[in-house]
Amino acid sequence: MKSGSIAGYSAPQIALHWLIAALVLFQLVFGESMSVALDAAGEGEAVSASDASLASAHYWIGIAILVLVGLRLALRLTAGAPAPQPSGTPIFDRLAHAVHWLFYALLVAMPVTGLLAYYVSPEIGEVHEIGKPVFILLIAVHVAGALYHQFLLKDGTLRRMLVPSR
Ligand code: HEM
Ligand code: HEM
């Protein structure tokens, strides 16, 4: 990983961060409609219009996330990222680093297991569903960390994910 090689995140990196975050939140909030629609179809029951459209949105937004994260990782690996802001507590710094890379792993694993559940075997859906609480936990830790940096340490960490430096 190239870290510390640049002064801050670029506009495309920032745009991708917030776009992907918004799409992931949509997936987490409305993902159940995919389960409901597939269960109903499996039982030969009618699927409500709202579940059908939310399931279709789940499919396409999930694929969009996979494409966007591919782009984001390519930028991350070629252009790099600014050096992490030390928090003064080494275990927090290690936690932040781990959460960032677990996010990238999950952002690839969720669409892949989703596609496998859809096309290959419904049992993989159980693995896909475990991703939901894992994602929520990581987001909670990540947001707490961002707010801690911004408002207690006042080191401008949130700002650098809002204002491009290049
Ligand atoms: C980052 C992307 C994704 C996230 C965060 C996500 C999240 C979720 C969530 C929260 C659920 C509901 C779990 C529950 O009912 O408790 C779900 C179900 C499901 N998703 Fe995704 N998903 C993503 C991408 C995809 C993609 C690309 C597909 C491809 C078709 C997909 C297919 C499915 C299927 C088939 C289910 C139903 C699983 C089952 O009932 O066993 N997902 N997803
Ligand atoms: C699903 C939601 C989210 C995901 C998947 C996500 C993912 C990530 C990832 C992977 C990074 C590391 C970037 C890199 O250096 O490669 C990052 C950085 C960052 N995120 Fe998020 N994020 C999410 C939501 C949020 C939210 C809601 C906030 C604000 C409260 C936030 C604030 C930040 C900040 C400030 C950084 C920069 C950290 C630094 O400069 O070291 N993120 N995010």
UniProtKB/TrEMBL annotation:
InterPro entries: Cyt_b561_bac/Ni-Hgenase, Cytochrome_b561_oxidase, Di-haem_cyt_TM. Signal peptide: none annotated. Its cofactor is heme b. Pfam families: Ni_hydr_CYTB. Belongs to the cytochrome b561 family. This is Cytochrome b561. Gene3D superfamilies: Transmembrane di-heme cytochromes, Chain C.
